[in-house]
Amino acid sequence: MLQSSCSFLVDSHEESIYTNEQYGIKLTYPKSWRITFSERNGLIVISGRESILNTNRVRIEIRTGVCPWNIPIDDFDKIDNYLHEELEALRVLYALDELDAIRLGSQTQIGSFEAKSALISIPFSAFSNTSTRVVTNDRSLSAEQLVEVYAIVSENAIIRAYIFLGDSQILNEKAVSVISGMELGCYDYKK
User: Fold this and answer.
1) 3-state DSSP percent of the chain in helix, strand and coil, to 5
2) Measured between alpha carbons, how far is 153 from 139 in angstroms, rounded to an integer?
3) For 165, phi and psi rounded to 5 degrees?
4) If 62 and its partner were Cys, which of 38, 43, 44, 189 is the partner (CB 3.0–4.6 Å)?
5) Distance CA 93, CA 80 (A)
6) Strands (E), 11-167
7) pTM of the predicted protein model
8) Distance of CA 135 to the CA centre of its chain
9) Phi–psi pair at 64, nearest 5 degrees
10) Per residue in 141-159, pLDDT tens?
11) Is the omega angle on the peptide bond into residue 68 within 30 degrees of 0, that is, cis?
């Protein structure tokens, strides 16, 4: 498995730009956050925290395909189906009888593309004790991890993005801005 990573320890208001031409994505994220890419499964993970002394965290996961995208997208209305399929996959992944959807099917704009999002809650007990996807500080059995799930229609592909929301509203807002500012497309970013 080929994996690339860059990491910064001190919080900063500066930003870094991540581009991956092979997967058709460009995004801006806080320079103090850590970003990794797994070529094996095309997963981009961005994790941030307020500072090295603070336990407040947030995690972003983005999945897209290799360029050129060749998944036919007939119309935007089908994005609801993609979002529901993704939610069903999460329900199965975490072995839940049902998924607790707090908000379902909100329409939004990601860059120049249409998207739908849902806010779901996954019980802490569904995660392994060492899961990096749990970013809330409450680790009790009754705790829940909130996840913002996005299905984004971009030219000939569906991009899936997840924000594992933490306890810090500031970090959560930064994570949303990373997702909403993504540039997607199979073209050369070196212009």
Assistant:
1) 20, 40, 40
2) 35
3) -75, 135
4) 44
5) 20
6) 15-20, 25-30, 34-38, 43-49, 57-63, 100-110, 113-123, 144-154, 157-164
7) 0.83
8) 13
9) -145, 175
10) 788 999 999 988 876 677 8
11) yes
